[in-house]
């Protein structure tokens, strides 16, 4: 499957678009992402793998946890991040993401 198809497959899922919005301002571990969804950890792991394979997010191992963040070098991620500002669901999630980032800076 070529890269553009991987990207469209990744963006076709509402939970994956929400994950991208949560990662808009801060990196989060899989556990921190899972707290925001009513799904099993294996299901979330599958969503994260699809987003990584499409090049929309990156994971960085820090100690025993992997921290996920947006791949800022990906134009599609930048466009999705931009459009989330206008999406009723995405804008609230982006605000929560910024609040999480602010709280991490205070620590």
SSE blueprint and pairings:
Layout lengths: L2 H9 L2 H9 L5 E2 H5 L6 H13 L3 E6 L2 E6 L4 H9 L4 H19 L1
Helix pairs in contact: 1-4, 2-6
Task: Please describe what this structure looks like.
The protein has 107 residues and is of the alpha+beta class. The protein has one domain: Orthogonal Bundle (Arc Repressor Mutant, subunit A), CATH 1.10.10. Helices cover 60% and strands 13% of the residues. It has six helices and three strands, in the order ααβααββαα. It has helices at 3-11, 14-22, 30-34, 41-53, 75-83, 88-106; strands spanning 28-29, 57-62, 65-70. The protein has a three-stranded antiparallel β-sheet with strand order 1-3-2. Helix 1 runs antiparallel to helix 4 (41-53). It is globular. The chain starts with a helix and ends with a helix. The mean pLDDT is 84.
Please provide a brief summary of the model.
The chain has six helices and three strands, in the order ααβααββαα.
Give the strand order, joined by hyphens, for the main sheet: 1-3-2
Shape: globular
Identify the CATH architecture.
Orthogonal Bundle
Strand content: 5-15%
Helix share of residues?
55-70%
- Total count of strands: 3
Class by SSE composition? alpha+beta
Q: And the CATH topology?
A: Arc Repressor Mutant, subunit A
Mean pLDDT: 84
Which CATH C-level class is it? Mainly Alpha
| CATH homologous superfamily (4th level) name | Winged helix-like DNA-binding domain superfamily/Winged helix DNA-binding domain
The ordered string of helix (H) and strand (E) elements is HHEHHEEHH
| Main pleated sheet | 3 strands, antiparallel
Q: C-alpha Rg, in Å? A: 13 Å
Low-confidence segments: none
Count of distinct structural domains: 1
